[in-house]
Amino acid sequence: MVMSAGLRTGTAQGVTGEPASRARLLMSDRPVTLVTGTSSGIGLATAVRLAGAGYAVVATMRDLARRDALDAARADLDVRPLDVQDPASIAACVAGVVADYGRIDVLVNNAGAGYLGALEQTPDDALTRTMDVNFTGVWRVTRAVLPHMRAARSGRIVTVSSVGGVLGQPFNDAYCAAKFAVEGMMESLAPVAQRFGIHVSLVEPGPVNTGFVEAVMGTTDPLPDALAADYGPMLASYLDGSAAVFETMGQTPDDVAGVILATVQAATPDVRVQTSDLSRGIVARAHVDPTGCAGVAAAGARLPDAA
Q1: Whole-model pTM above 0.85?
Q2: What dihedral angle (degrees, nearest 10) is formed by the CA atoms of 110, 116, 63, 204?
Q3: DSSP code of residue 252
Q4: Where are the alpha helices (DSSP H) in 77-172?
């Protein structure tokens, strides 16, 4: 069994130093991992991968009625409710995990939501939800778990970001804004967390073939007549190009889960981890061009000129 380098094992202790006493302490010789957004896609694959590698995995999701795919995987998982938009839900879940296991060694922030559309057609409620799930939700969960890791002077925080958190993508204004915010948050936290023995990493996939993509496509509102002539051809071109990229270069959720597992197990994980050659190329383009012009030009090459 391969365990994550640097993670504590053995007798579980709560954040107060008092030994936890519930039955699940039978599992306390395994690193305890909390994963958000595990009902499908990357989260589901990550929970199963980590469990198979010997981690005690608490797999969480907003609605337990959506746990069928997780149950069908027949992995050794502890499935619990956690809604990243609800502070009370987060507090209850984290407190319950610490009470039952004595600690949280690894946090994988995976829960996410998207919205596809031009800035002018994006309603405030769609922007608010996209930011709340992808950024504020990550902030809330991390803030709830961090005191326990700080007390232990040990831990791993792995957050699923996106190449869209490094280089903006057309018609993903709200989603990329949230992912850019997550990147800034985690990069700011990383040097401080290191002083407490906590490693912070951002995992940056490119295209991944999951139900998430179909769900995002379904969020697009019809373009109003006043916007259709200008934005319609560009949006159609972008969607056609994206479909081709996903078909030819898209990864599977298990591909990304494997990268997350390797990041958790690394002795000194990188702060930013790309999941494929494609995502490495996209991120490299952003980091070597201080003007930002090359990235904008590359994205613009996928769009027709406005009439």
Answers
A1: yes
A2: -10
A3: P
A4: 87-101, 124-131, 137-152
Tens-place pLDDT, residues 157-191:
999 999 999 999 999 999 999 999 999 999 999 99
Q: What is the pLDDT of residues 263-285, one digit of tens each?
A: 999 999 999 999 999 999 989 98
Taking alpha carbons only, the member of 135, 175, 170, 113 closest to residue 302 is 170
Token duo for residue 223: 């373009």
Q: For residue 245, what are the CA distances in angstroms to 163, 240, 241, 242?
A: 14, 9, 6, 5
CB-based contact 34:53 (threshold 8 Å): no
Query: What residues are labeled active site?
Result: 175
d(CA 89, CA 71): 22
CA-wise closest residue to 38 among 198, 199, 260: 260
**pLDDT for position 301:** 87
State the Cα–Cα distance between residues 117 and 228, nearest whole angstrom.
Answer: 12
